[in-house]
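Hey all, quick one. A colleague (J.T.) asked me to put the 5,6-dimethylbenzimidazole job into the tracker so the inputs and the structure tokens live in one place instead of scattered across chat threads. No bug as far as I know, just bookkeeping. Sequence used:
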Amino acid sequence: MLAETLAAIRPADQRALAEARAHQDRLTKPRGSLGALEDVAIRLAGAAGACPPPMPSPAALAIFAADHGVHARGVSPWPQEVTVQMVANFLSGGAVANAFAAQAGVPVTVVDVGVAADLPDAPGLVKRKIAYGTADLSRGPAMTVDQAVRALEAGIVVARGLVAEGARCLIAGDMGIANTTASAALVSVFTGKDPAEVTGRGTGIDDDTHKRKVAVVREALHVNGLSHDEPQPAGSSPSEALRALAAVGGFEHAAIAGFILCGAAARVPVILDGVIAGAGALAAAALDPATTDHCVAGHRSAEPGHAATLDHLRLRPLIDLEMRLGEGTGALLAHPMVCAAVRMMHDVATFDAAGVTEKPV
Ligand SMILES: O=C(O)c1ccc[n+]([C@@H]2O[C@H](COP(=O)([O-])O)[C@@H](O)[C@H]2O)c1
Ligand SMILES: Cc1cc2nc[nH]c2cc1C
């Protein structure tokens, strides 16, 4: 299923990109006056291979939840059971993601890919547990390659299902206590930045804990034979990318990578959230660099590894509100902006059609 998905991914269509740029310039507004929104509209035209691109609506949010063996190293101030408790909160509609999703009119699916507890069946819950949390990435590989592939495929299956139900925009969210440690390790490996530059304070840690967290990320790279000095060259070796993802990632990172790959293969745009979704996108891009052409950066998280991620992927975030929650919240806020950008391509009159005089050249 992974190979089939990778084989279906195409880069941005150059003709649609050129057509979209030319169309933008004929619309009744000064050229460039919509700033980054113009880039989003053009980007989605390239991704869809059509100008104007289809409306990225309705959207669907999937929150991938999992636990992390590295929690035992004291890298998060929160107890591990908060992951399963927040899953219950998502399912009963009480989390921030639910409020933002309701505001944006987006349905929420929660996917258990590795929560360290058994979950009862519930509407809105997809059960694809690979294991009860990863192994401690600072002592050895967090996942086997087989587990990583199964998590990637869980993300693909979820994305396929949402697209089959009519979603025309996918939003990737996450939940997993300690997952900013795995994110930092992935960001370091895939961008080549030193762990000290890309390891942040996650849910909020003091200076001593932050020092320990950086050391844990360094150990994780060392023990797994990975180096930030030799980042996985994007796409040049999918098997090395997969090994790196398995070694220092989490089940939710792998599932998010699969979710993004499936969106790209189906030509359905994916709005990325914060550093966890970003780390998943780095892994997806390392498996096939064309994947990024189908992604929009919803926001920039306060987590330092996220800025490094967006720079590496050459993605410009739509929103920067110093948020660092995850769950898909930043991407949900960006969705109406992405829709507005595309609607502009459909609805705005050209200078010719509206009889508005163009600026003399
Ligand atoms: O999305 C982000 O950029 C982000 C930044 C910091 C924290 N989080 C969330 O906080 C949790 C992980 O934080 P921590 O400190 O336990 O590693 C996890 O559930 C994430 O969704 C998310
Ligand atoms: C309460 C809480 C909610 C979250 N949502 C995403 N990560 C989270 C981490 C905590 C601790």
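Adding what we noticed when we looked at it: The pocket of 5,6-dimethylbenzimidazole (ligand 2) is lined by residues 78, 82, 86, 175, 203, 325-327 (CB under 6 Å). The chain has 15 helices and six strands.
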